[in-house]
Amino acid sequence: GDPAAVIAGDNATSEQIAAIREKLGLDLPIWTQFGIWIGNMLQGNFGESFFFKKTVAELIAQRIEPTLALAVCTLIFAVTVSVPLGVLAGRSDRVERVLRPFLDIAQVLPQFVYLLPVVFLFSVGRAAGVVACVIYAVPPCIRLTSLGLREVPVVANEVGYSFGATRRQQLFKVQLPMARRSILLGLNQVIMMAFAIVVLADR
Length: 203
Hints:
Structural class: mainly alpha
Distance between the termini: 27 Å
Helix content: over 70%
Strand order of the largest sheet: 1-2
C-alpha cells in the first residue's frame, strides 16, 4: 500500500496524504529517493521512526550497548561449551553419537522455537536471551571442531604416538594445531549465529 496513507491514518483526506507524500519525498522517482537516502545515510541520518517518534540513530544508540553485551556473553558461553564438547566428540564415537540428535534438532528448528521454552523457564530477560543464543550458536562449532579432529591424518597421530606422546600431548601438540582451521571456522560460525539471534533475543 501507500506508506503516506498508512502514516496519515484511515480518516485522512487526500490532501493530507499528498502533503505527507511530498514531505517524505515519496512523489519523487524511485532512483531519486534512493540517491537521497544514500546521501542521508552517509551523513549519519537514518531517518525517523514514526512509531517511537525518535530518530533511528537515537534508537540504535539506545540498543547497541545491551545488544553487544548480550552478544559478548553469548560468545563466551558458546565457545566455552562448544569447543570442549567438539573435542570430546572428535575423540570419542560414543560422545559423537550422543550429541548428534541434539545437534540435528538444534540446527533444524527455527530461531523462535528456542525462545518460547526458554522464556517459559527463565521468564523474559537477559538470561533467557543468553540461553537461547547459546543453544542456537553452539552446534556448528561442535560439529566443525569434531570434524577437524577426525580429519587429522593417521600418519600424524602415529608419529606422535611413536615418539611417546601421551593422549594429552597428542591432543594439544598434534591434533588441535592441525585442526586449527576447522576450529576457527567453527568460531566464525558461532559469531555469525550469535549475532543472527541476539537481535531477536534482546527484544
